[in-house]
Design goal:
Length: about 400
């Protein structure tokens, strides 16, 4: 995919959304177009160009330099531990589990399963995670506590004090005002509980002709619509409201999981034969990248038109080539679960993390905390003997630290 095509997928789609009142939510007039500057000093036709300050520093460059300095104060083992996101029960991690994560240098946790605990109870458990793992992050940067609160069937936190959001398919039929208000409320609930990452929204496009025949998404109504324009319109609103609440959104599952019939969680050799580097399924992701609020999660499926030899999380062609180089995405890349997913079960646990980082990924997600420790240990062990991998571990650690610095500002 060349630069012109990326522009067509991203900014071109956004222009369509803004002009098509029949398909896109209304009320966007007061919002700056994603991907376009809202800086009041931006030059307009007929105006004089602003005079740059000779001492003005690039904020992104400063962020990067500070993250590099922090990463270089860490040992290789600490860098490796900082990459992994480890799953613990949403009902609370045991003292032994927390201590093991602490010893391994882990500072990113995913609340897994389904919990009926109240908001106050969840808040207490999350506060314990923040307090216990804080020493694994330099300079009082945040511990990341994530969950999966999409709505409908995918709501980890279901107790009193958490919104009972319907499926994304229902949410996608709401107007912009209602969707924004509901997600704003959800974001506030998560932030108040100390949860600062939500593995949502789903950016997958499930064709109407496939519908519930798509086991991972369509079967549960996890898609916002059956076309790329409406999916993009909805996920941009979700991203904006979560970010405004202080919760990091994550668009998933790149490059699209809407055209397969089987679920990678429960089946191996799940392959998509349709999505290519010019597929319209990429458009919601391109729009989110231009909006620059969300991280990107990689699908576990294999995409035969993109890389017939490797599943997506292990594919440099997909993670580095398509996502980073072609679409221009520069921020954190998180995996889908690499521990319990049947799709990747043939690869030893530790090697799953290594292969993901080698492909250009940043944060391997593992829903099993004991296997997450194995991932961190394997990354560190192999990086000590492999200079190229050590450089990739360092780069991933820098990206994570830069994101923590960015979200702290």
């Amino acid at each position: 995919m060349n630069t012109a095509l990326r522009r067509t997928l991203g900014l071109g789609l956004l222009g369509t959304l803004l002009l098509s009142g029949c398909t896109a939510p209304t009320g966007t007039a007061d919002r700056p177009e994603p991907g376009k500057s809202s800086n009041p000093n931006t030059q307009t036709p007929g105006s004089a160009a602003p005079t740059p300050s000779p001492t003005a520093a690039d904020p992104q460059e400063e962020l990067r330099e500070k993250a590099e300095a922090l990463a270089d104060e860490m040992s290789l083992a600490e860098q490796a531990g900082s990459l992994v996101m480890a799953g613990v029960s949403a009902d609370g991690a045991s003292a032994a589990q927390i201590e093991a994560l602490k010893q391994q240098g882990v500072s990113n946790v995913f609340l897994r399963g389904r919990s009926q605990l109240s908001h106050a109870q969840i808040s207490s458990h999350v506060a314990e995670l923040h307090d216990s793992l804080a020493e694994n992050v330099p300079e009082d940067l945040p511990v990341w506590v994530a969950t999966d609160q999409e709505g409908g069937f995918v709501r980890v936190l279901q107790g009193q004090g958490f919104s009972e959001l319907p499926t994304a398919l229902e949410q996608g039929a709401w107007d912009e005002k209602k969707l924004g208000a509901e997600i704003s409320e959800l974001g506030g609930e998560l932030a108040d509980a100390g949860i600062n990452v939500n593995l949502a929204p789903v950016a997958d496009v499930v064709p109407a002709s496939l519908g519930t025949g798509n086991a991972p998404i369509g079967k549960f109504g996890r898609q916002y619509a059956s076309n790329e324009e409406d999916v993009a319109a909805s996920i941009l609103i979700v991203n904006e409201e979560l970010a405004e609440a202080g919760v990091q959104p994550v668009v998933k599952h790149f490059p699209g999981l809407g055209r397969v019939s089987l679920n990678t969680d429960t089946h191996a050799q799940v392959a998509d034969t349709k999505v290519g580097d010019d597929s319209t399924d990429l458009e919601p992701f391109a729009a989110a990248i231009d909006q620059d609020l969300a991280w990107v999660m990689i699908s576990n499926a294999r995409y035969t038109q993109l890389d017939k030899d490797n599943d997506a999380p292990f594919s440099k062609k997909i993670v580095t080539g398509l996502l980073r180089e072609d679409l221009g995405y520069e921020r954190l890349v998180i995996s889908d679960d690499l521990c319990d997913a049947k799709q990747v079960s043939a690869v030893p646990v530790g090697q799953r993390a290594v292969k993901f980082v080698r492909a250009g990924g940043t944060m391997p997600l593992c829903v099993d905390e004991s296997k997450a420790l194995t991932m961190a240990e394997t990354l560190a062990t192999q990086a000590r003997e492999d200079e190229e991998l050590a450089g990739q571990v360092r780069e991933a650690a820098i990206l994570i630290l830069a994101e923590k610095l960015r979200l702290q500002r």
